[in-house]
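Troubleshooting log. The previous structure file for this entry was overwritten by mistake, so regenerating from the original sequence record. Sequence copied from the archived sheet and checked twice against the printout by T.R.
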Amino acid sequence: MRLNGFQLEVLVNGEPLKEYNLPINESSSTTGSSYVLDETTGQKTYSDNETYVAVKPEMKYSIRFSSTRASMWAPLMAYVYVDGEYDYTYREILNSSPREKDCFWNNTLSKRYCFKFEVSQLTELDNLLEPLQRKPYGGLGAISIYFYKARVIPQRPVYIPDFSVNQVQVIESKSTCGIKFTTAFEEAEGFASRQTMATMEKQSVDPVSVLHLHYRPATWLQIRGCDIPEIGWQNQLSPNVSGLLEDVKPYTFNIKNEEPQSSLMRKTKYKIIRATVIHSDNVIEIADEGENRNSNEIIDLESYTPRKKRTYKKEVEVIELLDSEEEEEGNSSKVLRIG
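Regenerated output below.
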């Protein structure tokens, strides 16, 4: 997001995620509004929208931020908050070039905790009558940057208290129902021996700018009218997936016998058959062979939208496990599920 010379982006594989703006009255923000301070008048310019990106689990990311106000003579300090948490460190901004952060550090800098979106860990509120407390900085499901005017000081060591870096827990409530993902952390090695040093200090306790970038599932944003491409967000099997059903050849492999009286491994054959697939929301099931259908009908599962029902059918190739090599096609058999 961009606001009066300040910028915040979320990068995945080095590329910024597409952003979507929702009016403040149509979003369920867990933070305050983004703003920039006019140092001449002392007035804050607030954003009219909340900015969102669509994410999915196990997506590693980094945070990029910058300011056109920063210079050697007017440096800034930037504090990064993820889900309302931070690691007590700041980043120097001495010019308009962007800075990037992809992890938190522990208090001795010996461990890095790399950012990764993951499914939220839910918990319950002990006292249902007690109102949910907002984070003092940032908020759940949000990445926040707090920019402060700074001045350069002689280098000095800094004491950072011992703290833990863990995925935050989300209290189930109406205000947090859309926060399906929060940030988890992958631990990695840091520096063997290095002390935290300060080279700047704040000129004021009040930031000159605060930017919030919220993240939600793609479906959450689609419901609110955001035009999100389906590429990369498919969460169901499809006959058109490259390599899934192409060039499948008979092969012998071992599976464990399901009969309780024997734990031996046996050889099992399989063959490719044609079966009707019923697609309903995110579930694909095998239809009853006896069900009537139009075998000449062709449906594009990727673009088809049913008019009356949320289910539709298409014949595709599936893998059928045979009990023996001599088993006839009319006999019952097992179907190998993929996924």
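Residues 253-335 form one domain. Archived copy saved in two places this time.
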